[in-house]
Amino acid sequence: MERMIRSIRGSRNVGTGNIEVDNSEMEVFCGCIDRMFSKVNEFEQRVDAVERYYADNKELNTAKCSSILKDKIKKKHLMTVEKQQQDSEKLTQDLMRQFAAIFRQITQHKWAWPFLEPVDVEGLCLHDYYEVIEKPMDFSTIKNRMEAKDGTGYKNVREIYADVRLVFKNAMKYNDERDDVHVMARTLLEKFEEKWLPLLPKVAEEEKRREKEQTATQVATKLAEEASYANMAQDLSNELHGVDMQLERIREMVVRNSRFVQQPMFSFLLYNFELNFYWFR
């Protein structure tokens, strides 16, 4: 392309016996070529991005649905996702409230006092505690996380359930079966499991709903991405149509100036112009 522009600019004086090309008009022509060259490079990158996307998502090219039907499907998916998110959030909040009631009952039990705060490892001289217990847990830590508003809180009741069990499992693991703390932990764990059991069907329902929500969200995200690239392709098509018209005007300019340029040079310019641009149409 740059070679072609240099050739055009160098053709203003075409030699003895030929008329000198109008410099101002030739400069306009070369300026148009420069701008079109930059625009073509930009379009090429954008077209490559769209082609790569559709090459990686071949099913989008072979879809039998019309564009109108696709739009209806997208809207339906978005409405479904929104409805599922609302239902899931409501169910999660309801489960959190029910679990909070169970948690209060366990923590208020007369045998819950050894588990209310973190184990005082140094005060009790439990030098091997961290060698035996991988993840210490206590009720105050659980309560603080249940009440957290900074994004560090529990996402669902299954996570809280696991930490409550961990409190008792740690105590049973570190202390001998005959120790009071071991007996207290085992007893409270049994009571906790009894209270958890009626809640389990709702928890399973929440988890199933959450799984569907995640799937629907992924589909909605995919549809949004498809719509974005479809819009990009449409914009490119419109812009390329405009470029095509500009290229035709430039070609007419080349032909119009052909009377000022000797025939071999004119043929060379026209050939280079079409070689560099007309593949893009």
From TrEMBL:
Keywords: Bromodomain. Residues 107-182 form the Bromo domain. The keyword Cell inner membrane does not apply. It comes from the Eukaryota. Coiled coil: none annotated. SUPFAM superfamilies: Bromodomain. PANTHER family: OSJNBA0053K19.4 PROTEIN. This is Bromo domain-containing protein. It comes from Populus deltoides (Eastern poplar).
